[in-house]
Amino acid sequence: MTTRTCRTFQTAPAAVPKDDTAKYLRSGLTAEGFQAPDWLVPDLEDGTAPDMKAEGLENVCELLPDFEFPGEIWPRVQWSYDDETVRAQGREEIDTLVRDVGDDIDGVVVPKVGRQGDVQRALEAVASAEADHGHPEGSIGLSVIVETARARSDLREIARLRTDPGGERLTALVFGPVDYTAELGGRDLGDGRPRWDGLLEALSNEASAGDLLAIGGPFDDLFAERAGVTVYNADGYADQVEREARIGLDGSWSLYPKQTIQANRIHTPTPAELERDVDKIERFNAAKVEGTGAVTIDGQMVDEATFKNFRNTVETVRAIHRTRPEQTDELYDEGLLERALELELSYR
Amino acid sequence: MTTRTCRTFQTAPAAVPKDDTAKYLRSGLTAEGFQAPDWLVPDLEDGTAPDMKAEGLENVCELLPDFEFPGEIWPRVQWSYDDETVRAQGREEIDTLVRDVGDDIDGVVVPKVGRQGDVQRALEAVASAEADHGHPEGSIGLSVIVETARARSDLREIARLRTDPGGERLTALVFGPVDYTAELGGRDLGDGRPRWDGLLEALSNEASAGDLLAIGGPFDDLFAERAGVTVYNADGYADQVEREARIGLDGSWSLYPKQTIQANRIHTPTPAELERDVDKIERFNAAKVEGTGAVTIDGQMVDEATFKNFRNTVETVRAIHRTRPEQTDELYDEGLLERALELELSYR
Amino acid sequence: MTTRTCRTFQTAPAAVPKDDTAKYLRSGLTAEGFQAPDWLVPDLEDGTAPDMKAEGLENVCELLPDFEFPGEIWPRVQWSYDDETVRAQGREEIDTLVRDVGDDIDGVVVPKVGRQGDVQRALEAVASAEADHGHPEGSIGLSVIVETARARSDLREIARLRTDPGGERLTALVFGPVDYTAELGGRDLGDGRPRWDGLLEALSNEASAGDLLAIGGPFDDLFAERAGVTVYNADGYADQVEREARIGLDGSWSLYPKQTIQANRIHTPTPAELERDVDKIERFNAAKVEGTGAVTIDGQMVDEATFKNFRNTVETVRAIHRTRPEQTDELYDEGLLERALELELSYR
């Protein structure tokens, strides 16, 4: 749990071979309601073709100043722990972004990092661009994609960089399952890629231990075909996002506006969940007057630890309500929302 | 596997708002048969209300000298890796316990520990109380509850403290799922809290690598309601304890006498299991006369490694028989128990 | 993913109490087709009875020079992280093997290693035998069996030994579930041993991070009985090997020729898998002419990361075709194999 909100990490190719090469970038910047991502990630890496990367960078630098995007902007640049040529391109992209739109971005996303030392290199690249172009120290964040065996091996050490001098800019750990599966030699035997449950549990833990955000990986089976009709694969994506929410990932990766709707919704407590936890806190608050440390409500013992879980639900709703009141107003009954906003949340 | 027995880690609030504030403590101390826990944990932390903690401490200090509890006694004190005020209360509780009932307790349980350095602080708090009140060095144990992201992150390093000077008093690693889930921001989407399988596997491993006990977390859905009738949730708890036993946890947390019965039973080999493994060892002992390193029994190859698993079963039964002969006598046929006690257990 | 091939790690007792004590060793050395293992592991440890170990060592030294085995030969010697007597026997066995058949073996397999320091001792034992008998530095490999809590705890550190001076000979990390389960006190409650999914995922990751092979553990429920008829347990073993293949283990342990057939088959891409991935690469190669970074094929987005997974399939087939053309010729249509061998595999 961190106080920063990133229910949705939506990547958009920075340039595509269409009349308007910035089409997807523009539609991400102007999305509304539950379709608006918390983080928009203009993608200069795998989503943009090699021969369109220069145009992609131009698109990002030209468009960002024109929009008042209510969430955060985190361009993804090129990087590779084992290829200095690619890292040099990444450093140039970081430098250009910080120089031209340093005030419009919250940070950069660096993929394919290796061990702790490679993440340190990325931290230094950002620090150096930040200093060169006169931005306040620490104002440009760094998020990394965990998608190599080396980064998984050093996950604990990478997360701990945040407490080092210069490491405060480290903000999110994002999973990259496709590269990761390729690097480990994982196989799809007809039932999809491995889920990497162990990695995801560790990602959630190390992010929480280091006060970082933890974000799930992309789901690329966007559409399913049945007897000649192609439909959006709503079940497949929702199943993945629910698994991620359950183990405490803060947000999910979106490749597509419908995915953004779903991830925003799933990472927002449901009305039933909010009702249940508001109710338990209200009943607990009444019971604590009687002075017992642990009370039983509906057959479940409630102590300070149980209480914290109920409080998480309410605090998440309050945070979303601050930045996206149109979403909470749409989702909850007025009466329930009011109870959630006014509830006493101290255990003692 | 350690030689110390803790099939059941039963917490009992040290004081509750009833006529007899020590009611649950007293009933834990006098439980009999399969209802008697291996470890009784008088709870001064979350199970006792803030305004009853002083009385809880008095209850513990007054009652313990009056009972001859056949298992071990491990009071749980207050602690917090990120709150020095709470730690100061914990140190005082440890000091009082060691001063007043140091001969009646086997150690203290410290919750909400953080990284390795915080566990070192807890080790020092116990060592200091022990020295101040003239107890032999190492006579007061320390068990910790793993329920923060930091403790999970440092699990390997925490377990290795046992081999440091002064670390020998470290005895058990106990899982605390409720606080842990709250800290990671895990969600109950209608099907319960996450199981944290990765953490439990690591807990079992690091405990075995460090010669520590590994104990599962509490199960707080004590009762289930069906069409107006409330019943004890026997299936839910037994499912959890069986999962814990399967992966080598030494014991399970109990909040309730019926849970203690179930956990004691599940962590004791079943008659069928004992019969099966005694039979395999007897047949292996016969086969080894013929001088083959690996023999096939019922389609399964048996070598020294397989043999160790069979031997674990028999040794667990022998250990329980030493401390709780009334339980083994009740559970097994006389003939089977006799075969288990007399079996030759050396592989060569 | 490493370039070295070990789909099958087949152990064969070095001596058994039969007229021909080298029976199983000989049959492993002469196996043909899909029954021929990639690695043959003459077993001087648990598979050979204590009083036949000397004869087992003789068998290995006598037989190896007589056969042209097309795969690799890796004898398993005795070892124990906590018993110097057993380690001394292991050092002697290593010395004898390197002296007598150093040119015929690819390395030795050392079981029951403990923490990183114990693996260093094993590396030194091999280095010393190699130097004493005039073999080129690094020519005799070392593979270790991960089957103790200490080795699991230090897995990351053990894998990193490969990058230390003298560590290059480290080749494979092999899982040993039977000893491991015994050491952790795991239980078979009627549904088999625990699967240790967390350990296997870590094994795959650390092996990939360290350019090592990762190999699954033995499956010892070789036969199943149904109404009086005993049959080979083909489903049980295949289920395990498929789980291992899915998460990127390079190969599986075989105890029996039928297991070798199955593991060789499962670790070889199926015709459908090869057809699917060849087709996707062909269509991607056509699409990339149009200059888009990510294209959608059958509803799945294909970028450089997705592409790597398809390429893995083709490269695995090419590697097997180089060493076992009789297997690839048998398995694939001529047309498909030709397409796989001729495909352009560069992403850009």
How much is the radius of gyration of chain A in Å?
A: 21 Å
Number of helical stretches of at least 4 residues of chain A: 14
End-to-end distance of chain A: 21 Å
Instruction: State the share of residues found in helices of chain A, binned by percent.
Output: 40-55%
Superfamily (CATH H level) name of the largest domain in chain A: Phosphoenolpyruvate-binding domains
Oligomer: homotrimer
Categorize the overall geometry of chain A: globular
CATH fold-level name of the largest domain in chain A: TIM Barrel
H/E element string of chain A? EHEHEHEHEHHEHHEEEHEHHEEHHH
Largest interface: A-B, 43 and 45 residues
Number of domains of chain A: 2
Report low-confidence residues of chain A grouped into runs of 5 or more: none
CATH architectural name of the largest domain in chain A: Alpha-Beta Barrel
Strand content of chain A: 5-15%
Annotation, overall tally of beta strands of chain A: 12
In spatial order, strands of the major sheet of chain A run 3-2-1-10
Structural class of chain A: alpha/beta
> What's the CATH class of the largest domain in chain A, please?
Alpha Beta
InterPro entries (chains A, B, C): Aldolase/citrate-lyase_domain (IPR005000), Citrate_lyase_beta/mcl1/mcl2 (IPR011206), Pyrv/PenolPyrv_kinase-like_dom (IPR015813), Pyrv_kinase-like_dom_sf (IPR040442)
GO molecular function, one term (chains A, B, C): lyase activity
Protein name (chains A, B, C): Aldolase/citrate lyase family protein
GO biological process, one term (chains A, B, C): oxaloacetate metabolic process
